[in-house]
Amino acid sequence: MADHVLVTGGAGYIGSHACKALRQAGYVPVTYDNLCTGWEDAVKFGPFERGDLLDRARLDAVFAKYQPVAVMHFAALSQVGESMKEPGKYWLNNVGGSLSLIEATVAAGCRNFVFSSTCATYGEHDNVLLDESVEQHPINAYGSSKRAIEDMLKDFESAFGLRHVIFRYFNVAGGDPEAEVGEFHRPETHLIPLMLDAIDGKREALTIFGTDYDTPDGTCIRDYVHVCDLVDAHVLGLKWLEDDKGSRVFNLGTGSGFSVREVIDHSRAVTNRDVPYEEGPRRPGDCTKLVSGSTRAGKELGWTPKRSTLDIMIADAWRWHQNGHYDK
Ligand code: UFG
To answer: What are the residue boundaries of the NAD-dependent epimerase/dehydratase domain, all occurrences included (predicted)?
Structure first.
């Protein structure tokens, strides 16, 4: 019988793509999601168990039912701006929820844990390329909550032998080329889907958050990685744990940074449409530049991004944008 993997947040953007990749790799992904930001329609590749991370009894029952060989933990609140206004939500859901999940994992005797972290844990580093050894000084509550969970995993490894792979994502974009699943947030806060909304008239204009940053064109720079490449790394991370290679942290980015204005230019070229935009003030919590300087995932996991060019990411997002959506 195929091995089960418990995927928290499997009804969300990245989690649903991970479920597809796991299924293709021969695992059965079991989605555990409270649907606070996810979509039941996105659960297509394995069983669905609706539940909250803070509901320990429900988690214990799900572990007992499926006896997963590993956990992939995606479920989290992930909006930088919101985290600045409502930090308590982030500490309760992300940190409290993860503590409940990690304790349930250990209690069930499962020892392999793949965790979705973020480059937002690094904070501002004055134009350096970020590798895994850079000190973590998050400047928003979202990044602080993820860093706290990374620390938690280390403590649970010392005490209980919980082996973990931590992935620090840069900016995830694009979607399944077959458009079975895609990026669909309500409310939407991410640059590329908001821009596609502006392009086809679903919103009036994109607002550029800040044009006075210390970058060549004054707008923030990010390292965009295709969601399908990102989830491929997770399957490699799972195999890494199954091969007993020990706990490890990997950045997932391409090492190429693009400014907001450059993303607008590429979107215009890919869609062959005008991008209505206006210039606005900075958004609290935004770092100037977040670009990966690491080749560790390539060297150690054998990870090779295949779809992470800006044009492919925008084209895949555009295809989903025109054809795909979920209903509650
Ligand atoms: N931006 C705009 N206008 C918008 C939305 C975004 O100018 O309407 C800008 C932002 O200021 C930023 C860039 O576009 O410079 C990307 O913003 P996103 O909101 O798409 O992504 P973030 O960089 O804020 O955050 C994302 C994820 C986080 C993750 C982070 C790591 O949402 O979970 O990437 O960089 F931590």
So the answer is: 5-253
